[in-house]
Amino acid sequence: MEQVLEKVLDENRLNSLLGKMVNDVGAAAMGTLIILGDKLNLYKTLAGKGPLSSDELADATNTSERYVREWLSAQAASGYIEYDKDTNRFFMHPEQAAVFAEDESPVLMTGGFYSISSMYHDEPKVREAFKTGKGVTWDNHHNCLFCGVEKFYGPSYRGNLVSSWIPALYGVEEKLKAGAKVADIGCGHGVATLLMAEAYPNSEFIGYDIHEESVNHANHEAAKLGLKNVVFEAASAKSYPKLKFDLITFFDALHDMGDPDGAAAYALKALDKKGTCTIVEPFANDNLHENLTPVGRAFYASSTMVCTPTALSQGGTAIGAQAGRKKLTGVLTNGGFTKVKVAVETPFNLIFEAKP
Questions:
Q1: CB burial class (10 A; 0-12, 13-18, 19+) of residue 133?
Q2: Any idea what DSSP says for residue 184?
Q3: What radius of gyration, in Å, describes the C-alpha atoms of the chain?
Q4: What percent of the chain has a predicted confidence (pLDDT) above 70?
Q5: Rounded CA gap, 154 and 139, in Å?
Q6: Which of 59, 193, 257, 287 is the most exposed place for a label (fewest CB within 10 A)?
Q7: SS3 94
Q8: Looking at the predicted structure, is the pLDDT value of residue 72 above 80?
Q9: Same fold, 11-100 and 112-355
Q10: Partners of 355 in the beta sheet?
């Protein structure tokens, strides 16, 4: 008789895993509530006027108290806000306000959940891509993705791009102040391009993106800001005019491209011989086991649902959002750049400087 062996579960290991899953289920459910709190100005109002009861927050935001009461309870249970049981009021510490309520904070995180909502909408498309090996084009993703990318990356760019990233590039800031020609490839809604255009009025900026709706949005934002030194045009990473740019940038975009080596080679041809190319990419180590962290988990998840499908839709390779220093350096050197280095490293980004 064939012997059947029972599986013996390690109770401690099982309980640890179940604890993680309970936490993750709660986090996934909270994503919708974070978007609600952002859109209804619940965080901003609580941060600015708190401590508040559910009645007071509802009155201040013209919302229903019964819904607000449940929302506040979920936020407090998550540790996103604080609850005073003696006064039955809720409030936010400065650190919580910086993450949830302050538009100019470099650590504002609410925007990430807009992009995550698009992943749930796009699950059927990506599931089919898993079966066929084909991709999902950028414009075929749910429209929550495009505003989500802007809202998620914007705070980091506003907090770092002009103040620390550009000054770390050899001779670039001086050129931009004097007057330079700049191309931003894969510009999306143009957050980084507009920041540079505002900071360096003597320079000329052109943002290029394959998504026409994003290009139109970026041009609208430029007009609202009254900027005359920036324009956005629809073009791929291998079709924009070779205007001998002084600076060519790729902000969290190169890993979404089907032919990153080709995009780098094209940039080299479009660059002035004394120019600079910079790419900003998600931070990653070169080995998988070193990226098995909370930050790595978030980037791998986004890469599975967004970056890899987008790159594969272009018929090339997909280096993913966790490419790492070695692979990204290889992309730039394969493209013909001879001087490549990491100019800035943060917990979330690698900023490369590449010269001919």
A1: exposed
A2: E
A3: 23
A4: 98
A5: 20
A6: 287
A7: helix
A8: yes
A9: no
A10: 339
Nearest to 117 by CA among 137, 80, 140, 147: 147
N-terminal to C-terminal alpha carbon distance within the chain? 72
How far apart, in whole angstroms, are the C-alpha atoms of residue 69 and residue 56? 10
Is the preceding omega at residue 51 within 30 degrees of 0, hence cis? yes
Residue whose tokens read 């609580």: 46
DSSP H helical segments within the chain, as ranges?
Answer: 11-39, 42-49, 54-61, 65-78, 94-100, 112-132, 144-160, 172-178, 191-199, 212-225, 260-270, 294-302, 308-312, 324-334
Cα–chain-centroid distance for residue 91? 28
Please give the pLDDT value at position 43. Answer: 98
1 pLDDT band, cuts 50/70/90, is: very low
Domain boundaries, the chain: 11-100, 112-355
Model confidence, pTM: 0.91
- For residues 147 and 182, give the distance between their C-alpha atoms in angstroms, rounded to a whole number: 24
112-355 sits in which CATH class? alpha beta
Total residue count of the chain as it appears in this document: 356
Q: Which fold has domain 11-100?
A: Arc Repressor Mutant, subunit A (1.10.10)
Give residues with Cβ within 8 angstroms of 346, minimum separation 6: 160, 283
- Written as one letter, the residue type at 43 is Y
Please give the Cα distance from 265 to 331 (Å, whole number): 9
Q: How many helices (H) and strands (E) does the chain have?
A: 14, 9
